[in-house]
Amino acid sequence: MAPVAPELISPRSPRVSAARRLVKRNFRGKERLFLAEGPQAVREAAGHRVDAAATLVELFATVEAAERYADIVGEARDAGARVHLADEQVIVDISTTVTPQGLVGICRFLDTPFEEILGARPQLVAVLAHVRDPGNAGTVLRCADAAGAEAVVFTDASVDLYNPKAVRASVGSLFHLPVAVGVPVERAVAGLKDAGVRVLAADGAGAHDLDDELDRGTMGGPTAWIFGNEAWGLPEETRALADAVVRVPIHGKAESLNLATAAAVCLYASARAQRASTGCRSVTES
Question: Is the pLDDT of residue 49 over 50?
Fold first, then answer.
């Protein structure tokens, strides 16, 4: 059988140019579209819907990738996405990775209104305040998903959820749980408290020790964790909003933990305490 010729030969194609513009935040906001790269993200996008509308609207794939990931391409077509077989250079031009995997999807924005998150009475929430690195933001989102959090909130001082690096670092998790964006931290904390959620600020200089909190049995209720900037943590005015400022204990000689590691420790501590209070053994036991 003769090889299938790419449909989009020129990187100057209008469809390719439109996709390439989504690397920039202002174009993403104007079109309310973002890029999802790689088989995992595209698979998750193909199965995701917002208000009955498919999230994945368009897919660019090299011939080789379309053959290798035929099931994903089929799911994309079933979801109603327009599928374009593209020359490898087209994928390179659209992609933001050094070694593209041959699949790039265009997706509709999928953030959830903050009020809707509060109305669902969440038990575990991650709040990203002043988080500027997109890789860290996506990784914290992935940690929240893995720990069973019911929502993530990106404050207005944090990086764009739809930054390609943040999307990539989430490894598909942004399609798994509600995410609110652009929420002022004061509004986020006030809303969560009104919803009966205890708000904890994660900070290396916190007055409360995470181990002590677990020993005292204070972690079993609805909880939101605020995570701050990678370099300078949380400003005093943000720490003052929380019910408590909690530090992850350092038992060895390490100077500190990076943001994503600290977030994973805090979120899993809450998840385990919450499950223990309902009779479950552990989030890591089957």
Answer: yes
- C-alpha distances (whole Å) from 90 to each of 84, 179, 220 are 11, 31, 50
DSSP state of 174: G
Token readout for 159 is: 């990086």
Dist CA 138 CA 162 (whole Å): 9
**Is residue 146 packed enough to be buried (19+ CB in 10 Å), middle (13-18) or exposed (0-12)?**
middle
Q: What are the pLDDT digits (tens) for 197-223?
A: 999 999 988 899 999 999 999 999 999
State the first-to-last Cα distance of the chain, in angstroms, to the nearest integer: 48
Residues 44, 86: Cα–Cα separation, whole Å: 21
Least confident of 68-72, 193-197, 277-281: 277-281
Structural contact between residues 135 and 159, judged by C-beta atoms closer than 8 angstroms: no
Percent of the chain predicted with pLDDT > 90:
79
